[in-house]
Design brief:
The chain has 405 residues and is of the alpha/beta class. Helices cover 37% and strands 13% of the residues. The chain has 14 helices and twelve strands.
């Protein structure tokens, strides 16, 4: 019943086709007892998956705190300005064609992305958010027992998709500065390693490794190991797209660079993403993907958003300014922060992260409390000020105890 991986020793040659790294078909076995629970029909890896912890919605909070008129959602790294006005207009126009299937591989969206980045269209893959490409690539390549190397804490979907495909997650600690430890990752690659994953900037820490250092690391990864580089937050870095390694993906057959419209472009609800990849990798992704990866409305929104440079630049500037301002406020509060290049800050406040998140809810503020430290999304200047005022009041009142050392 298990998928059989290709022999690893055959995959180290530069000439080995990428398709040799993908899965073989699965012989199906069914349970026949009428009384067997449906869960018993699933893969063992699915049965052991933990539930995904999503950020609480405004609707959930309104039901819990009906006396609060407005909630500020600073927990899910969403764009505080919403979508581009041009994207909203495009979505309205596309709604009338929602009864029609979208173009299967989103050619117009891919063409717009190719023009913007100056790359061939065949090197761009359109997906349902960056997570859609991540899910597809792990489903394509990870077989039972295959090792996947990454550092932790990082985006929780990595370990989830590895486990679902019966792979082995080799999780290494971040450096003291909470950055991906590329040296340790290279040292952890074994003959059983199928994939390495890097989130840059990293979620939840916001930290980055330098472009040149990262490129050198990728150059040292064996050709039979797939490299997934998640750049969901790269536009918020001080260097913006200049820090991206998307062009390297055009040259390296084992590299895919994942991007999204959810953050900078404010389209998290539309699930629009994309990946840059070598032609051989992109062809395999198109072969393996679902027929309709991005909706008509999502495609229209993405095309309009990529063309609205004024909105994108205004969003990036707002985040960088807010990040610096909140960083200074947190320092005055005695919080330890890490050098974020994303649209959030990871802070050691001295309080239990979950307790602090709960203490902020009566103020109408939602932040992430399910990490070891507190992750706070950068909002508008008004939202940031409201958060700072609430934190100062919590500190002054001694509303919650400090975390035990």
């Amino acid at each position: 019943m298990f998928r059989k991986s290709a022999p690893l020793e055959a995959l180290t040659k530069e000439s080995a086709p990428l398709e040799a790294l993908t899965k073989e078909s699965v012989p199906l076995e069914a349970l026949t007892k009428e009384s067997a629970p449906l869960e018993a029909l699933t893969k063992e890896s699915v049965r052991s998956l933990p539930a995904y912890v999503a950020g609480e919605s405004v609707e959930q909070m309104r039901a819990r705190y009906p006396e609060i008129k407005a909630f500020q959602r600073l927990a899910s790294n969403e764009n505080p300005l919403g979508p581009s006005p041009k994207a909203i207009e495009a979505m309205r126009a596309a709604a009338s064609s929602a009864s029609l299937y979208p173009d299967s591989r989103a050619p117009e969206l891919r063409r717009a992305l190719a023009r913007f980045y100056g790359v061939p269209e065949e090197n761009v893959f359109a997906s349902s958010g960056a997570t859609g490409a991540l899910e597809l690539l792990t489903d394509m390549f990870i077989c039972p027992g295959d090792e996947v190397v990454f550092c932790s804490p990082t985006y929780m979907a990595y370990s989830r998709y590895v486990a679902r495909n019966m792979g082995v997650a080799v999780q290494l600690p971040l450096t003291a500065e909470l950055k991906f430890d590329l040296g340790a990752m290279l040292g952890a690659i074994t003959p059983r390693t199928k994939m390495v994953m890097i989130c840059n900037p990293n979620n939840p820490t916001g930290t980055t490794v330098g472009r040149d250092e990262l490129a050198a690391f990728i150059g040292r990864v064996p050709p039979g190991v797939i490299v997934l580089l998640d750049e969901a937050y790269i536009e918020f870095s001080d260097g913006g797209n200049g820090e991206s390694l998307y062009r390297l993906a055009l040259e390296r057959r084992n590299l895919a660079v994942l991007r999204t419209f959810s953050k900078l472009y404010g389209l998290a609800g539309e699930r629009v993403g994309y990946a840059f990849a070598h032609r051989e990798m992109a062809d395999l992704m198109n072969k393996s993907a679902s027929f309709f990866t991005v909706t008509r409305i999502g495609q229209a929104a993405g095309i309009a958003a990529i063309g609205d440079r004024e909105f994108a630049e205004r969003t990036a500037a707002l985040i960088r300014e807010g990040r610096a301002w909140l960083g200074r406020e947190f320092a005055e509060m005695g919080f330890k922060t890490y050098e974020s290049q994303a649209n959030f800050i990871y802070a050691d406040t001295g309080y239990d992260a979950l307790q602090l998140a709960e203490a902020l809810k009566p103020y109408g503020l939602l932040v992430r409390g399910n990490f070891e430290l507190s992750r706070v999304t950068i909002g508008t200047a008004e939202q940031n000020a409201q958060l700072a005022a609430a934190l100062w009041e919590i500190i002054r009142k001694g509303a919650i105890p400090k975390r035990a050392a």
